[in-house]
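Practice record 12: protein with 2-phosphoglycolic acid.
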Amino acid sequence: MDDMTKKSRIPSGKKLIVANWKMNPSSLKEAKKIFSDVKKGLRGRSRKEIVFAPPFPFLYPLSQLSLRSKVKLAAQDLFWESEGSFTGEVSAAQIKEAGASYAIVGHSERRAMGEGNEEVSKKALAGAKAGLRVIICVGEDKRDSAGNYLGELAKEIKGSLSGISGGRVSNIVVAYEPRWAIGKSAADAIDADELHAASIFIRKTLTSMYGRKKALGIPVIYGGSVEPGNVRSLSCEGMDGFLVGHASLKASQFLKIISGA
Ligand code: PGA
């Protein structure tokens, strides 16, 4: 294991809580305010790894506020090439230069714009090679009583991680984000039993790819309408944290989620 890979591991037992801000907030001033308010409220909560995924232009300015702090930064996407004529794209190395140590790839909102498993896999590999911790999002479109959605989920996990060898899994986090549960209220989100069953299925799929020991070392987090009202019930065994969208844009709500996780 090289130094970079070692550094990218979450200390064992720590929950990973990621704020996915998507294309919000509209100004850097607001971004700094949420970020600083959360940091202020975090004192003494060192058992959790807190990561913010702001829009690209806010990464560097926020990194300047997070020096010497335990809070980390993530990009919301990356491109698999390292440099060249790829207008609009951002490489893993550039993301690291901007102060991020994590990157999200394969979010369902990017998949809805046409990104497939092959692209997600190339992005994940490029991020891992650069020493980033890569959060790979997977999740079914909808559920059916016959359980066919599990086949869809397995296909997406296998396809999105196809470029990741056993030697690189320590850079990977899997985020289970069923598309039907994203952007809803806590009442319409997944329930604890459904999440527990999905977490077992995801571990089984990862075990079939990497063997039991390595699969157990891959953090699996959940995203989709996580709010202060459901975070406790969703903190089931087998889940290593949360990817939080809309509720991470209000410092008070995000702090409640952090303490409830
Ligand atoms: P949500 O978003 O918490 O607003 O459902 C989660 C996500 O899309 O990552």
